[in-house]
Design brief:
There is one protein chain. This protein is mainly alpha-helical. The protein contains 17 helices and 4 strands. The protein has a domain of 344 residues. The strands form 2 sheets. A two-stranded antiparallel ribbon has the order 1-2. The chain has a two-stranded antiparallel sheet with strand order 3-4. The longest helix is centred in the first third of the chain and has 42 residues. The chain starts with a helix and ends in a 5-residue tail after the last helix. Belongs to the LIMR family. LMBRD1 subfamily. It holds the Pfam family LMBR1. It comes from Hemiprocne comata.
């Protein structure tokens, strides 16, 4: 009966997982179609963006599943369940491990091969519309550099282990043989872990740039709302009248046949560009003012405020917990050479206090972890959307509804893939013991002065990927401090800024008049 009940619960879990996959695919399709440009959309880039975004979301959902499975194999009293013998436990662990292998291998494939190839293919297509074979060759040439980097990372992780016995009398061949034996014993885990950790460091930089800002900007934008379309339209009309009057005054100088000076000609050109932009804004504002979507958003305005308050509470909970966790590492860890890793928790933080309480009511603790993970993803999307894609001080692309270029969508999905890799370590920083063992308890028996552990806890598979190399852990530690600092700066900036325009980022001076046709579909 117990076996049947367990099988039924596992089957239900797999059905829910399948429904979650379907929901993720639908969301990714809607999200990509919402932001991609209609004039520049391509089938291959659209499929690539949807697939990469789906992999990012599925990978983020694997951590709660991992924690649930190691917790599900034990009873509340610390003993293993009847069906969870050594073989079954090993099968479950291997299944989760293979899941990480598969998803992380797909991430490597996307980051180092698929996305770069599609990106460079369309970059070449814009420059040379003639020869498809030439475009493919050029894209492969640039992609080869990314593949080389991936191969180097895998080789470093596979054949440069951290602990090699120091035998002075060993020959070079014995040392090489030892490297291959260690690689075989780890089943490639070390190589994949090193490659993924390298990408996670890049994801950490992306999270510091985009997620930290998105965590402050998204809630405050929901709370403050946007300016009224009617008020903006009135201001825009006044701006059009002022520009037209200025143009008339300048052009009146040449009514008697005298040519305009070079300074006046430059001024006229600037004013005409400004006038075109204002007229495009007028058309957008008129469409928004009449659209049913605007009326619906006004009706749910109280709900947006509630969501904004909820998101800012989650952000503050996240930041305070991260600060206390990092402070604990600074005070009680062995230092830089150990990667600032500590065993146990010396300073409690709100999340560490909340999770044990929620464990008493299944599945509230998993809902909280899943909520934090998904919040991390959606705030990353908000940060990228608000800031655009930058390379240091150079702005490469803007993310705008209905006007995002295929290359920008590919960049967005790659950044999200990297941020998702960093999410697991961020959650570990907040609740290390929970991420390692879930809600497991161990049974102890005290005899005289000795304590005997009757059952050991099972470590989550995600932990194996997180702490193979101490120097990556040290980098994550310093990255957490930078994340907190950027969040606080973003919070101050977001509080000082006024309400966003109702057409924020929708109209730029470099847009063509044809771009208005792309956006009109959203405002009907």
């Amino acid at each position: 009966a117990n076996m049947a009940a367990a099988a039924s619960e596992l089957l239900t879990g797999w059905c829910l997982f399948g429904l979650a996959l379907l929901a993720i695919l639908i969301f990714c399709w809607v999200y990509v179609r919402k932001y991609q440009s209609r004039r520049e959309s391509e089938v291959i880039s659209t499929i690539t963006a949807i697939f990469a975004l789906a992999i990012a979301l599925i990978s983020s959902a694997l951590l709660p599943v991992d924690i649930f499975l190691v917790s599900y194999m034990k009873n509340p009293n610390g003993t293993f369940k009847d069906w969870a013998d050594a073989n079954v436990s090993r099968q479950i662990e291997d299944t989760v491990l293979y899941g990480y292998y598969t998803l992380y291998s797909i991430i490597l494939f996307c980051v180092f091969l698929w996305i770069p190839f599609v990106y460079f293919y369309y970059e070449e297509k814009e420059e040379d519309d003639g020869n498809t074979c030439s475009q493919v060759k050029t894209a492969l040439k640039y992609t080869l550099g990314f593949v080389t980097i991936c191969a180097v990372l895998l080789l470093i992780g596979a054949f440069v282990p951290l602990d090699i016995p120091n035998k002075n009398n060993s020959t070079e061949w014995e040392k090489v043989k030892l490297l291959f034996e260690e690689f075989g014993s780890s089943h490639g885990l070390t190589a994949l872990s090193f490659s993924i950790s390298s990408l996670t460091v890049i994801g950490m930089l992306a999270a510091i740039t985009y997620t930290a800002y998105g965590m402050s900007a998204l809630p405050l934008n929901l709370i403050k709302g946007t300016t009224s379309a009617a008020y903006e339209r009135l201001e825009n009309t006044e701006g059009i009248e002022e520009v037209e009057q200025h143009l008339s005054r300048i052009k009146s100088k040449c009514r008697d046949g005298r040519p305009l000076s070079s300074r006046d000609r430059r001024t006229v050109q600037q004013l005409e560009e400004r006038l075109r932009t204002l007229r495009r804004r007028e058309r957008h504002l008129e469409s928004i003012e009449k659209s049913w979507c605007t009326k619906f958003c006004e009706a749910i305005r109280p709900l947006k405020i509630v969501w904004g308050v909820f998101f800012i509470i989650v952000a503050l909970l996240f930041t305070v917990s991260l600060f206390l966790s990092n402070l604990d590492k600074a005070l009680h860890s062995a230092g830089f050479n150990s990667g600032f890793i500590i065993l146990g928790t010396n300073l409690t933080n709100p999340l560490n206090m909340l999770l044990p309480v929620l464990q008493t009511v299944f599945p509230l603790d998993y809902i909280l972890i899943t909520t934090i993970v998904m919040y991390f993803i959606f705030t990353s999307m908000a940060g990228i959307r608000n800031m655009g894609i930058w390379f240091f001080w150079i702005r490469l692309y803007k993310i705008r509804r209905g006007k995002t270029r295929p290359q920008a969508l590919l960049f967005l999905c790659m950044i999200l893939l990297l941020i998702v890799l960093h999410t697991s370590y961020m959650i570990y920083s907040l609740a290390p013991q929970y991420v390692m063992y879930g809600s497991q308890k161990y049974l102890v028996q005290v005899r005289l002065l000795f304590v005997f552990l009757l059952d050991q806890c099972i470590v989550t598979r995600s932990y194996l990927f997180l702490h193979k190399f101490w120097f990556f852990s040290a980098a994550y530690y310093f990255g957490n401090w930078a994340f907190i600092a950027v969040f606080l700066i973003g919070l101050i900036v977001s509080c000082c800024k006024g309400k966003k325009s109702v057409i924020e980022g929708e109209v730029d001076e470099d847009d063509s008049d044809m771009s208005d046709d792309e956006l009109s579909v959203y405002y009907r």
